[in-house]
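We close this part of the discussion by returning to an individual protein. The sequence in question and its structure tokens are set out directly beneath this paragraph:
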Amino acid sequence: MFQSVVQLQRLTEAAAPPIELAVVVPTLNESGNVPEFLNLLSIALAGIEWEAVFVDDNSSDGTADLLRSIAREDRRVRVLQRVGRRGLASAVVEGALASSAPYIAVMDADLQHDEEKLPRLLDAVRDGGHDLAVGSRYVGAGGVGEWDSKRHQGSLWATRLAQRILKAPLSDPMSGFFLMTREAFMASLPRLSGGGFKILLDIVSSSPAPLAIAEVPYVFRTRTAGESKLDLMVVAEYLKLLADKSIGRFVPISLLLFLGVGALGVLVHLAVLGTLVEEAGVRFAVGQAVAVTTAMTFNFTLNNIFTYSDRRLRGWRFVKGLAGFAAVCSVGAVANVGIGSYIYGTNVSWWLAGIAGSLVGAVWNYVASSALVWRR
């Protein structure tokens, strides 16, 4: 009896048409939009075999639980809940890899992307011979809707920056609404930065060969529920992605950021030391100890936010990471002094020996911190 039930289930599954389109939807606190989003998606994709793969970054508003309850009734809905990590780009990658569909669409669940354009995007790729079809706000009848002038100008500025490094002409490289073949996605995958929020720019600039791109105009809609994720960190991640795709092939961007933070740390060290010794009359040894501790904490915090944003430490892990960073930097300080002293002993000028020691210490701190403190 059991075998016959299993056989019947297999026959039923075999008779169902294969999924043609996977719609990957990163979510963070979008429970107020998900039901309407799925309703609109069902209407727009009538006649197309599709599935929606939601990748939820452990929303605090119950988005993942809501999606699971919907998925129990609708087999087209799937949810991947991620705990301990965030990021739109990595969410798209994981969602795409979780599906076997030959075509992959990416869009938000906040109802700002026009789901009615999905069939046109699919036609452009499936029947039009394109590798990628992009919903564009800056071509034809497209538009940014009710944006104020400040946000519009910021978007145009970011677009112009992105267009300088792209291998293909694209009017809206900032778009988060697009559809591509699995082949195009897999070809770009090994070179993806995987960080930040502008995955389209990452995919196009990471492709080993120029992509055939179609653009479909759409008007960006106004959010009705939930909160926008656009903030200063999004801007910082975008600039980091641009740097990675332009000069990152020569020098790791994380190394440059690490060294930049270190330079700021020197200024913090001197400011604290000068204030304590000159203004407060504290003994030099005490002031130096406080300055070192302050600068080290400053460096760790900034590196945690910017340099290693994709591996950011929180809570108790932040405290443990700070302790580990202090240990790593202590070894770096010993290497700095040792190498500098050795080079100075070979009759090299003091300032050159000092720079050499600092560089060795900085490189050690970067390598050891990446491997031990912010390890993947």
Summary: Residues 316-344 form the longest helix (29 residues).
